[in-house]
From TrEMBL:
It comes from the Archaea. It holds the Pfam family Lactamase_B_2. The keyword Hydrolase applies. Residues 35-203 form the Metallo-beta-lactamase domain. It comes from Haloglomus irregulare. InterPro entries: Metallo-B-lactamas (IPR001279), RibonucZ/Hydroxyglut_hydro (IPR036866). This is MBL fold metallo-hydrolase. Keywords: Hydrolase. Coiled coil: none annotated. GO terms for molecular function: hydrolase activity. SUPFAM superfamilies: Metallo-hydrolase/oxidoreductase.
């Protein structure tokens, strides 16, 4: 399993357009980027590619990285930065299954797959496939399991990807706070690589109108309500016994001296599991 981190940033990305903060300036100087979230998973046994989330930066991500276009897609939730790149499917790919959860979201009155269906009904290339959380299914020769996480007010799903031949395992937290339910943690447990949502360091919680949540050992694991802090992401990695954890969905609000240190990911990182 070859994993390429196409997009490792939050919804405005780093650098953020027209932003001259120290972090965005440092990113420009270093020539690094954190575009909107997306991960490319290539199964070298079948030579098939799965795209996890369709970033609005999809076109640039595929120009910047030497990876094949996807044979199948999975959507974690309906926020702009994870879904709206699906329009790029037009004339780029044909008849691509787009896997997404089938549970109705009380907030929207439809499931993630229902929103994909409604929004992209006009595109023949997009074929929504309803998937039930906790029920493993096959995509690109890999076994995928969607699990609910906690990203209020919308439903959102983490994902376990296992190669049934080699036993390699990639887990993704999805956009989530630290309150990932125990049964979801069980499905994500013991990955070779965990991609964990972490938006800022916990000392920035004082600037969030709702502060921090999920305090452990005097530190907030959650920034506001929607995302983990870096501390929360790292702790989730330890909770799940991940061999390696990369923190993704990182914001430009991170102070520059903390923005490019381990284990924070940048675009283009590649892992072979
Ligand atoms: Zn900035
Ligand atoms: Zn989100
Ligand atoms: Zn997001």
């Amino acid at each position: 399993m070859e994993v390429t981190l196409l997009g490792t940033g939050d919804t405005t990305g780093t650098p953020t357009p027209d932003c001259s903060c120290d972090t965005c300036e440092a990113a420009r100087e270093r020539g690094v980027k954190r575009s909107r979230f997306s991960v490319h998973v290539h199964n070298e046994r079948t030579d098939e590619s799965l795209l996890v989330d369709a970033s609005p930066d999809l076109r640039h991500q595929f120009l910047a990285n030497d990876v094949p276009l996807p044979d199948e897609v999975l959507i974690s939730h309906i926020h702009f930065d994870h879904l709206d790149g699906l329009g790029n499917a037009y004339r780029l790919v044909s008849d691509v299954p787009v896997h997404a959860a089938d549970e109705t979201d009380p907030e929207t009155g439809e499931s993630v797959v229902g929103t994909v269906d409604r929004r992209y009904d006009y595109l023949d290339a997009v074929t929504p496939v309803p998937r039930t959380p906790f029920e493993p299914f096959e995509a690109c020769g890999l076994e995928l399991t969607l699990v609910p996480v906690d990203h209020p007010p919308l439903v959102c799903y983490g994902l376990a990807i296992e190669d049934p031949e080699t036993g390699a395992k990639l887990s993704l937290s999805g956009d989530t706070n630290y309150g990932v339910p125990e049964d979801s943690r069980e499905a994500l447990r013991d990955p070779d690589l965990l991609l964990a949502d972490g938006i800022v360091p916990e000392h920035l919680c004082e600037y969030h109108p709702l502060g921090g949540n999920h305090e452990v050992d005097g530190e907030f694991m959650t920034f506001g309500t929607k995302h983990m802090t870096f501390e929360g992401a790292r702790r989730l990695g330890r909770d799940l016994d991940a061999d390696e954890t990369r923190v993704v969905h990182v914001s430009h609000f991170v102070p520059a001296e903390e923005a490019f240190v381990e284990p924070l990911a940048v675009d283009g990182e590649r892992y072979v599991l």
